[in-house]
Task: structure prediction
Amino acid sequence: MSLGEELESEVKSIFNLTWSERDGQKVPESENLRLGNDAVKLEGTVLYADLDASTNLVDEYKPFFAAEIYKSYLHCAAKIIRSEGGAITSYDGDRIMAVYIGDYKNTSAARSALKINYTVNEIINPAIENRYKNNYSINQVVGVDTSPLFISRTGIRGSNDLVWVGRSANYAAKLTALSSAYPSRITESVYKKLHKSAKYSSDGDSMWEKVTWNSMGDMAIYRSTWWWGV
Result:
């Protein structure tokens, strides 16, 4: 069988096989799903954390410096996500994806965003200045959305991963493409389910500003420059 014939057979199989679907009680890992049309369904909140202007970083600075920026940012983001009950689902270059489930998934994810902002401003950037004094500082954006998720395993034997199908996976990633002047962005679906402690400061000030996401059909989202100490 030629490669073309093999691919044609596999594609027909994907479109013709009946899906096996089940509701999930936890965030799945690759080994929990078969490579065929097998899926887990979850109500999940997705967080993406993404470095801004990483192309300029790798173009204008030494490779070891760029690597240190990546490592410090992703390490801190991962630790914060885990501390808030999130499950890290992938690393992709200069960004990290995580999924939160349970009754407090939206508050936990939004709080994670504010904690990542704190860590960048109060821990990582001061460390960069102290070590290199090169005027470089990290800018970044965290995006959060919530929706039903349909999770399947994709790829080939020996090289495969999970694919996360659902609005929240798509929208959370798109939010990170917006300006890093506001490092934390959440959809209105997330905001409406936040505990008041993640909406207002101890003085009663709102930590989130409602704005219109013009490129997404004037959808209402919330942005923030606030941070939450770790």
Strands lie at 20-23, 38-51, 87-92, 95-100, 140-156, 159-165, 184-187, 209-213, 219-224. The chain has one domain: 19-27+35-224. The chain is about 35% helix and 30% strand.
